[in-house]
Amino acid sequence: MRYVPEVAVWETTLKCNLRCTHCGSAAGDARINELSTKECFTVIEQLSELGCQDVSLMGGEPLVRKDWKALGGAVKDLGMDLCMVTNGILVPDNIDALEALKPKVVGVSIDGLKDTHESIRGKGTFDRTMKAVDLLIDRNIQTTLITTVSKTNFNDLPPLADLIKGKGCNWQIQVAMPFGNFSRDLLVSEEDFYAAAMFIAKQRIENRFEDMPVIGAHCFGYHSKVLPGCRWSGCTAGITSMGLTSDGGVVGCLSMGNDRFIEGNIRDRSLREIWEDPDAFAYNRKFTKKDLGPNCSGCRYGKRCKGGCNSVSMSLTGRFHNDPYCFRRIERQLLNI
Question: Residue 237 carries which DSSP code?
């Protein structure tokens, strides 16, 4: 079977201008020996040759790289869609360049109302982030606000919805997992996870799509009997998506820990050689139902679902295909349905 990396998520640098308490990458300082501009151009060329459609530049903070505009331009020049994920702080200084690149979407992290957001990301960050969001929207750049949910900001979801509604941007809600800077003590419970899913469903019912499109990230969506839109066809890592680290590592998904499960390095082998290696990404490409963990074995959806999100599964249980944050499992155990 031939696999095509339709989406590449690229940690262009680990350097960041913030020190967020939930950062899974533990970003701050650049990695030793990060890829040069020339090496990055080679990666972009090889992504295009593999048939990649979307390239998402992130970090760390991608805007701290002096060559980010050149990298974004190369992505566009080779016919791929450009996406970016930023904390927003440097957006005002770079808004003209962002507008010129015409990205498909820019994701901006917003983790609660002012006090909560700044307890996570630092004093003075909230107003600067919201200014960035307004600038992006004013320039007609498609914007997605990204909220990473933990015990710290769970109760901010309803008032945050009121703040976001009508701005004309998307809202992606995801759950913080215990790796990098994030403490397991702040992980939401299964009950709160399910409540967050109900909140997403409620927002999608009550608000017109054009007013506030709300989506759950890859950690939401496993075969609920109650909640709508919960079909899941398995983790895409190494199937239709790949992650790239700033020093050339190739992984299936950066959310599984960006220095873990590295299949190879572009300095040693071409991206095609790594991607097409018959032994690469074996946890997904060679998956069989017997690989399901105890949380998922015996489930009627197991073969299709592959045990949910592998990032959540590995973070919480130490193995793949064993995600405990599953709607069907929670409904059966907590709600008895």
Answer: B
